[in-house]
Amino acid sequence: MSQSGAFCKSEEKLGVMMEKKIQILVAAHKKVSMPSQAMYTPIQVGAALSAKRFDGFIQDNTGREISSKNPYFNELTALYWARYNSDADIIGLVHYRRFFSFSKQKDSDKILDESAIRALLSKKSVIVPKKRRYWIESSESHYRHAHHGVALDVLRKVIAIKQPDYLTAYDHNMSRTWAHMFNMFIMPRTEYDAYVDWLFEILFAVEQKIQSDVVNWDIYEKRVYGFLSERLLDVWLEKNHISYTEVPVVFMEKQNWLLKGGKFLARKIGFGRQI
Fold first, then answer.
1. By C-alpha distance, which of 110, 102, 88, 109 is closest to 43?
2. In sequence order, what DSSP letters do the residues of 158-221 get, joined into one string?
3. Which residues are bridge partners to 100 per DSSP?
4. Where are the domains of the chain?
5. Can you spell out the DSSP letters for 33-100?
6. What kind and span of H or E run contains 250?
7. Under 8 Å between Cβ of 137 and 265
């Protein structure tokens, strides 16, 4: 295809993209300031477990929902809510303290805006965060050092039974030294529905097998299905040959790098959760 032909095709795709309704869910469990852009929709996750209601937020316990599972599925309850209750053509998920942005400034006015999203999706199918690189360990070893390994063992068995065509892609991604984390992405409705259906079929099956163990874990480790899903997005993208573009993530709150570094070293010298 000539350069002029490719340009015209790109312009045509961008024109179609301009007609699509975008909804970016901002998952939050507390009342915080939100971006002023209309496409960013604050959603109170775990609303079924709280008597509080945040002004200007939608709640994840309306319509078809799994809000009460929030302590275990974390921001995924927002993901599930949107699958059955959002009418948007393009759906994304970010966090109240993590947003896509090409700026390093902690400024909600500089996060990814509507025109940028439309332009990016006219070229690639999905927007994901920049890769998180582990450098000295694989995605699998990183998980086992940080969390209960039994969940990872069960996850692989479930994929082998329920989605065997994905097993090679799963093993490949778990051996990599990088991953797209945070359960953050923006994608068209068709891809969104397909991904969410696939994801929850797997996670609900894992839940059935380990829920009796999970109830005895601490509050952090109870969020196991959210941790597992961070390892699954790349599996789905790779197996289905979905193109993506990476956008940096800006953290709106101050990072305690000393604490993070200490926890990392503790895991590496053997005090992690390898069971």
1. 88
2. HHHHH-GGGHHHHHHHHHSSEE--TT-EEEEHHHHHHHHHHHHHHHHHHHHHHHHHHTTS-TTG
3. 249
4. 3-271
5. ---SSTTEEEEETTGGG-S---TT-EETTSSS--GGGHHHHTTHHHHHHHHHH---SEEEEEETTEEE
6. strand 249-251
7. no
The Cα 5–Cα 10 span in angstroms is 9
Q: Could you tell me the two tokens for 49?
A: 């477990």
Among 90, 43, 96, CA closest to 250 = 96
Angle between helices 149-162 and 189-214 (to 10 degrees): 130
Q: What is the DSSP letter of 252?
A: S
Neighbours of 251 (CB within 10 A): 13
Name the 3-class secondary structure at 27.
strand
Render each residue's pLDDT in the chain as its tens digit; 275 residues.
556 555 556 666 667 778 899 999 999 999 999 999 999 999 999 999 999 999 999 999 999 999 999 999 999 999 999 999 999 999 999 999 999 999 999 999 999 999 999 999 999 999 999 999 999 999 999 999 999 999 999 999 999 999 999 999 999 999 999 999 999 999 999 999 999 999 999 999 999 999 999 999 999 999 999 999 999 999 999 999 999 999 999 999 875 545 545 555 554 555 345 43
Handedness of CA 23, 94, 124, 204 (dihedral sign): negative
Q: Do residues 101 and 110 touch, judged by C-beta distance below 8 A?
A: yes
Query: How far apart are alpha carbons 32 and 30 in whole angstroms?
Result: 6
Dist. CA 44–CA 36, nearest whole Å: 17
